[in-house]
Structures are given as C-alpha cells and as structure tokens.
Amino acid sequence: MELIDNKYKIQGIPVEQLREQFGTPLYVYDAEHIRGQIRKFREGFSTVDLHIKYACKALTNINILKLMLREGLGLDTVSLPELRMGLHVGFKPQEIVFTPNAVDFSEIEEAVALGAKINIENLSNLERFGQKYGGSVPVCIRLNPHIAAQANSEKVDWWHKQSKFGISIDQVGDVKALEEKYNLHIDGIHIHSSSVIMSPEIFINGAKAVFDIALQFQNLDFIDFGGGIKVDVGDGNPVIDVVELGKQLDVVFSDFCQKYGRRLQLWFEPGRYLVGNAGTLLTTCVLRKRNGGSEFVGLNSGFNHLIRPMFYNAYHEIVNASNPTGSTETYTVVGNICEIDNFAVDRELHQVREGDLIAIRSAGAYGYSMASTYNSRYRPAEVLVINGEAKLIRQRDTYEDLLRNQVEIELD
Ligand code: LLP
Description:
The chain contains 13 helices and 21 strands.
C-alpha cells in the first residue's frame, strides 16, 4: 500500500475503492509485494543452491499457496491439513516439508504416505520412525542449537523458554545412536532461528555451529535454516538485511560445502518475510468516543481478526486512509470485542472521524491465519490484488458458517 496523490493505493487501486467493492473488515494482499520479496531473497542468496519453502502457517489461503507455487517455491507445513492444501494446489509432495512438533506419530505416518519430506524434532518420534521405516524413508532432523544465546535481550530469554522445539544439540549423540541402530537416512539438518536474530553476524555464528554438527552426518542433501526473518513494520526496530545476510552466508556455506565434500542445498522457510508487509487489514471507524481522558477510535474489527497487538504486544502501523494528510491527534484504537481489545494505545493518527477508512498494515502474516469467530463475529473477507486487479479469494463468514458444525440436540 502506497500513498500516491493523497490516496492510499495498492497496485494503483485506491483502498477506498476496495472498501466500496468488498466492504470492511477486509484483508487485502498485494501479490506484487510478495513477488518482490521472493526476488530480494533470491538476489541475496545468488551463489548457493537455494530452496525457499514458504511457511504457509503465516497465510494459508490457497491462492497465496498457488502464487508461491507459480513463483517456484516449495512449502513448509506444520499440520496435515496444511500439507493437503499444498497438494491440492499442485505442489509436488517432495517439495513440501512436514515440520510438526508435538504430534502423534500417526500424523507423521500419514505425511510419509502422502510423500512429503519429513522433519522430526524429538527423539521419541525419531525412534518410532526408525522402527517403522529404517533407512527406507529419508528424514531431516530439527535441532535446537540455542544460537540465540549469543544475543542478550529479554526477547532472547523469551525465545529460550520456547525451547520445546527441536532436539537439543546436547542430544546429537542420541541422534547418532538412533541413526546407527535403525540405519536411518538423515538427509537434512534443520534449525529455526526465530525472529530474534536480527544481525547477520549472530546468524552466521549460529550457522557455523550448525555446520560443525552437520559434519557428523554423512548423507546430507540440505541444511534448512527455517524462517523467522523479520520485516520492517515501521516501529524503528532493526531488521536483518536479507541481501547482506545472503552474501555473508553464501561464503560460509560454500566453505562448509567444500569441507563436507559435496554441494548441499540451502533451504529457508520464510513466512512473515514473504507475506507480512503484503497484507493490510481494512477497517472502518464506527465510533469516536472520549472516555477517561482518552480519545477512542472504535473499529468494526477486533482481536478476533488480528490478534497480534493483544497477544504479542505487536506493533502494527495504522493509517487513516480517508484523511491521510490532515492534522494529527493521539488516539487509542480499539476493536469491538467484549474485553480489552486494543490495536494501539496513544497512537498519533491523522484526525479520525466516524466512517473513516482505517488501514492496519503489516497484517499479511499471522493475521487471518490466527483469526477466530470469538463473540460470534464473522471473520473478514480476503482479497488478492494481482496484475492490477482485485480478486475476492475468501468470502466473509456468514451466520450459517457459525452454525455449520454445531449439532443441535434434544435437551429432554
Ligand atoms: N519454520 C518454522 C519451523 C517455524 O516454526 C516458523 C514459525 C516459520 C518457519 C516461519 O516463521 P516466520 O518466517 O513467519 O517468522 N504467530 C507469531 C509467529 C509464530 C511463528 C511460529 N513459527 C506472530 O504472529 O508473530
């Protein structure tokens, strides 16, 4: 979304026009932005055998998946339905990675049967995998190399608490023992470094630690660095420069490949990087209110549509698309859910009136995919702007949708 001639536009289409055509609340995605991010990623990693697996948990609309397929990407999935959606739009099973965490082994069996690439992140399922498949099905190992330890911030601390993921590097010996016991074919090493890694240096140091471990495995085809690459959301926090990261990682990766004796593939699983800034949640200000010294802007949306501000305290830039250059005031921007439901507190916006079109930016990743029907409100519609045209890619929920799976019984 860009401000051109005093109007916010997506590929030349004024967002006001989108509101007229599709109503609000509305998620709008810009296919051109997604394509641009893919180009940038490839530009960064130009000398290695790069494979991008879109982490579709970020935004699962099948048209977005189709776009990724068309752009030559693979897919990273965390559940069987995600895997099935990938197959549905035409991804080859071997282009889809299945990276669940705490799942029953039967899910992994089903993913094997569907032909996906399997990524295992705990010793229990690795043992079961060995018992069932031996070396007949290759498997990737998700490790937790604790690389964030090299940065020192509160966020990193938070990241450490998330270490339910992956097999700790302290347990590589156990992985080796299972490899030997079951003659496992370990063809990949995976780490997901999470968004807290913001400088190429930290990333590169972590990567080197991973390469050292990788040297202990003889049959690798790829190293997978997961996702977690941030995008600039306008909050002033630094983001990693992917082109710079690519240039630096290319060098150390090539060195590693030489040591390893073979040119391996380099995988990434970006979600947010590809779709985060491609998405905007268009809403309407339905209420202006002064209460307790605050000026409230009430939107026809809420954390049921975009939970990130309430759930993670995430910053999302908000603009008044109906008054993009007027004088500014400080507002608390709230939703209509029956509890504290802030999109932003003490945020400066161009003066807001009831009826104004309010756009919440950077909403492409983990926006719709984490939306719910809490308060029995409908989830928004979704529109993809592609080749200069706005196309509806998901209808707004209806009353029937809310009732669909409910089973009405006789109570006496
Ligand atoms: N690969 C793995 C193994 C992951 O766990 C994730 C995200 C990704 C790739 C993609 O990460 P990305 O590039 O999108 O950062 N709901 C949160 C984000 C949770 C991410 C979970 N894993 C949010 O709204 O910020």
